[in-house]
Amino acid sequence: MTAHPPQDGVATGPQPGGRPSANAGARPVPTVDVHAHLLIGEVEALVAGLPGLAEARELEARRNGPASLAVSGPMVRAVLPKATDVERRLAAMDAQGVDVQLVSPSPSHYHYWTDEDTAEKVCRLAAEATAAHCAQAPDRLRGLGLAPLQHPRQAVRALDHALEQGLLGVEISSHAPGRELSDPAYEPFWARAAETGAILFLHPFGCTLDERLDQWYLSNTVGQPTENAVALSHLIFSGVLDRHPELRLIAAHGGGYLPTHIGRSDHAWSARSDAGAGCAHPPSSYLKRLYFDSLVHDPHVLRALTEAAGADRVLLGSDFPFDMGAEDPVGALRAARLPDADFHAVRGGNAAALLRLT
């Protein structure tokens, strides 16, 4: 594992690549991107032609609108080599100055419309394909599988299978049809994840505001942060994080709108009996039990995120290789002008500890 030197004007002490270091002889901290995706053709081949796929695609089309779909199709085709070929992935990582990626299946592979048998096959294929992809560069790639949130009884089994493949955990969406993350049916899943120390990566796919967001790619720009905020609020206000304090959950997109607007949640928790009934502490306190990626596209928001959650709870994320990602995630982090220690913690120190790279 090669650690890339920090950007000019950031580091202040001995660094890798010939720079002096405040901790001479210490192993350099790798740069770690926790938000990177894999496209898996085997999963799409499995579901092709099944009852329910056409309806799911019609819903996605309504939610995104024709103009967005016309852009997204060519974009996905253009990034397909980076999203499937290990050598192209590694070359792109080198260009970005990224040492390690945590690779998760594209959220388009969730297929939460499938029946129990198909859902199990989807998750097994996704886990095995991700493990095989990462095994081609084991010093640079770590991976996550999927869990079928539409069938809560299967979620523990999918998590266990992913861990058996050598993956670090699973990726989940912000909800499943008819179920929020506060649903009691998920209790065994949260318990198993906490018990095993598995990583859960919360990454929404789609937004239930539907046609209200079907222009100008609002389905993503507004919808994804909204879904993050709703999902995290369900976990907090329902007491999931009280019952399972050892959960190791990373929220994509900086947790959406919630971390920077958490004061409203705190006020409701203290002012209203219905808002404060489910969790033991003010909602803002739970931010320090969660992890957040840095993909917020605004240096001021990134600074606010580190202030709200703590710099030790923020991890570098790029959404590689899609167009809503950051082509230069380290540069985006540098633009936030964090204190030197916080910069290096977010750049890789926090993730190296969480993913147990060292």
UniProtKB/TrEMBL annotation:
SUPFAM superfamilies per UniProt: Metallo-dependent hydrolases (SSF51556)
GO BP annotations listed: secondary metabolic process
Keyword field contains Lyase: yes
Pfam families linked: Amidohydro_2
Gene3D superfamilies: Metal-dependent hydrolases (3.20.20.140)
Coiled coil regions, renumbered to chain: none
Keyword Ligase among record annotations: no
Cited InterPro entries: ACMSD, Amidohydro-rel, Metal_Hydrolase
Keyword terms of this UniProt record: Lyase
GO cellular component: cytoplasm
Highest taxon in the source lineage: Bacteria
Region (Disordered): 1-28
Start and end residues of each Amidohydrolase-related domain: 32-357
GO molecular function (one): hydrolase activity
Protein name: Amidohydrolase
Species assigned in the record: Streptomyces humidus
